[in-house]
Amino acid sequence: GAVVSQHPSRVICKSGTSVKIECRSLDFQATTMFWYRQFPKQSLMLMATSNEGSKATYEQGVEKDKFLINHASLTLSTLTVTSAHPEDSSFYICSAMGGQGGTDTQYFGPGTRLTVL
Amino acid sequence: GENVEQHPSTLSVQEGDSAVIKCTYSDSASNYFPWYKQELGKGPQLIIDIRSNVGEKKDQRIAVTLNKTAKHFSLHITETQPEDSAVYFCAASIGGTASKLTFGTGTRLQVTL
């Protein structure tokens, strides 16, 4: 298995509100998931590593209190963007590690387009 | 930390021709090198990967070569088709559970009729 889903695919919210994005591995278990953001015509930027049953590890410069990550089960990780502002508008993509390719292969979800007005 | 450079940034080929994208990496400990294809508005899709114990891997029209001594690896697409048009990313990691990927800057491939 190697299918990863994200929900929602697109969200528009007002400045100051919080948005939750779900990432699910549909046909395999993933102890580790990753969250990335991607700006137009740029590469993927790793935000944090999500580990099932423990706290997420954030990359330098990523505010852990603003981007809350919860990896409650082996098939689900959530990213909550708190008090969103227009500069948080971006394409958020998760990946899940494991599946048919091996324990270190990352399979990506389809992404979530966040627009903050 | 690891640094991955990717060239070219854009590549235009005619349908049926071959396309080659090259990447270099800096960390000699890296031993896992995947390639992803990303279509507009979608998440990256794994198309092929290679590990440091092999020098070449092929899957139908796609092949990847790895030169560990020179720290570079390349993606080769033969008999290109319009549906190959996308952005391609190379990446590198040290492998193993929870290992992070370092991505290249991407190559926008355009296959023209």
Describe the structure concisely for a colleague.
With 117 residues, chain A is mainly β. Chain A has strands at residues 4-7, 10-13, 19-25, 32-38, 45-51, 57-58, 67-73, 76-81, 90-97, 106-108, 112-116. In chain A, the strands form two sheets. In chain A, strands 2, 4, 5, 6, 9, 10 and 11 form a seven-stranded mixed beta sheet that branches. In chain A, strands 1-3-8-7 form a four-stranded antiparallel beta sheet, with no helix packed on it.
Write the layout of secondary structure elements.
The complex is a heterodimer of chains A (117) and B (113).
Chain A: E1 4-7, E2 10-13, E3 19-25, E4 32-38, E5 45-51, E6 57-58, E7 67-73, E8 76-81, E9 90-97, E10 106-108, E11 112-116
Parallel strand pairs in A: 2-11
Antiparallel strand pairs in A: 1-3, 3-8, 4-5, 4-9, 5-6, 7-8, 9-10, 9-11
Chain B: E1 4-7, E2 10-14, E3 19-25, E4 32-38, E5 45-51, E6 56-59, E7 62-67, E8 72-77, E9 86-92, E10 102-103, E11 107-112
Parallel strand pairs in B: 2-11
Antiparallel strand pairs in B: 1-3, 3-8, 4-5, 4-9, 6-7, 7-8, 9-10, 9-11
